[in-house]
Write a structure and sequence with these properties.
Distance between the termini of chain A: 48 Å
Strand order of the largest sheet of chain A: 3-8-4-5-6-7
Order of helices and strands of chain A: HHHEEHHHEEHEEEHE
Number of helices of chain A: 8
Largest interface: A-B, 19 and 19 residues
Largest sheet of chain A: 6 strands, antiparallel
Helix content of chain A: 40-55%
Shape of chain A: globular
Strand content of chain A: 15-25%
Radius of gyration of chain A: 19 Å
CATH class of one domain in chain A: Mainly Beta
CATH superfamily of one domain in chain A: Ferrous iron transport protein A (FeoA)
Oligomer: homodimer
DNA sequence: TTTCATTTTTAGGCTTGCCTAAAAAACTGT
DNA sequence: ACAGTTTTTTAGGCAAGCCTAAAAATGAAA
């Protein structure tokens, strides 16, 4: 088992995040932006990681994770999300406070710790933001989720995830009394600006901007 | 709140441990031994920490923690021991496996995390090895403990701590079915070599060497 | 007190991970 | 295709934290 520095782990995670949606290579600049560092530092580190066989690097062409690099990155995501569940479920943190702490906890090295934590939490499949948690083999459950913005009037749905996890957004949702598991029904859609009026089941009616609707994952229930 | 590197924190803890029993200054060599590093590296770091006002350093005379240094060191001990409780009580680790993991967890920076963890664990006063856990103000409960080796025949006592926490010792205790909370009675003391025959309440009779008896803290119950 | 062993410090050097500035390569539009 | 822009790499440097070897300070014993 190779042991990586925290910096190396953070770069792996950044490459992972950048490449997981579109399957193009991650560019030096994109990585630099995500890590808030200079492109020169990124080039340095990419060479190191390529030397360790964790990613495939070709000058001026960006990088892709190797199989081993992907495994390590997936395991980091697993650890991060498990710790987030712990912080929210067991220590009662609000979902907008857990990211930074999980960012530190994910670097703790102990496979047995992860395994026992997973068991203690009852092998959760999703983290507090609705993101799927990879299992010990790196497999993760698929969310059958769609964007709230794609629903039509009268559709009923349950909130299962957020696209964006910034503090401001999460805190705004709290203020609206929207959290994972909240059931809702669409009342009306305003084509003019894409905003929607929805009613929280057992609660009040609220109007959400298009921007908000585009950042909420739901599952239809009717 | 000053933020220290993990290396700086580890040095603080080492000085703390060395100076907590005898109130003499910690010597460069003693610190080097505890940190498994060279005396030269220690000198480097002591200058850094003295520069930050965390300890008092005089060439060739060793160091003592400053008030602030002591506070930081105590808080590290608090975090370490709280995480050990978590690992043993919640994740069901055995007491000889938790030190290295707690050593990593103690460096996670978040006062709120420590506070919530403490509450979640029900504000424990002692860690799985019987060592006292400082509270948020740095105060810790006194153990009314004595060494098993100081007991006389017929004395009854309960095991409340260990002097030494090496893996080999803890595993040996497990094999003897000795754990914190185990009640026992002294049967006989052999002055010749200091070994003792004791009986575990509700269990078998065992003989412990002087070395073992010198490393077990007990509280008399009769 | 003087010598000798031990402890501590200094000096110089290494890697990691970061920086800026400048050079080189790759894209873009005409 | 080539000029200009953007991206990426190279070069050189810095701080942290470690190392070894050598010098200096301390202290113990004769």
């Amino acid at each position: 088992m190779e042991v990586l520095t925290q910096a190396e782990e953070n770069y792996l995670k950044a490459v992972f995040k950048i490449t997981e949606n579109d399957d193009k290579a991650a560019s030096t600049n994109a990585i630099a932006a995500m890590m808030s560092t200079s492109a020169a530092s990124v080039t340095d580190m990419l060479k190191r990681l390529a030397g360790k066989g964790l990613l495939h690097y070709e000058k001026h062409r960006g990088v892709v994770l190797s199989e081993r690099g992907g495994e390590l990155a997936t395991n980091l995501v697993r650890k991060h999300r498990l710790w987030e569940v712990f912080l929210v479920k067991m220590l009662d943190f609000s979902w907008d406070k857990v990211h930074d702490i999980a960012e530190q906890l994910e670097h703790v090295q102990s496979d047995e710790l992860v395994e026992r934590l997973d068991g203690f939490l009852d092998r959760p499949q999703f983290d507090p933001h609705g993101d799927p948690i990879p299992d010990a083999n790196g497999k993760m459950a698929m969310r059958k989720q769609i964007l709230l913005s794609s629903l039509d009037p009268k559709d009923q749905a349950v909130l299962v995830g957020v696209q964006e996890s910034t503090n401001t957004f999460l805190q705004y949702l709290d203020k609206l009394k929207l959290s994972l598991g909240t059931k809702l029904q669409v009342v009306e859609r305003f084509e003019y600006d894409g905003s929607m009026k929805i009613v929280l089941i057992g609660g009040e009616e609220i109007t959400l901007s298009h921007k908000v609707c585009e950042n909420l994952f739901v599952q239809k229930t009717k």
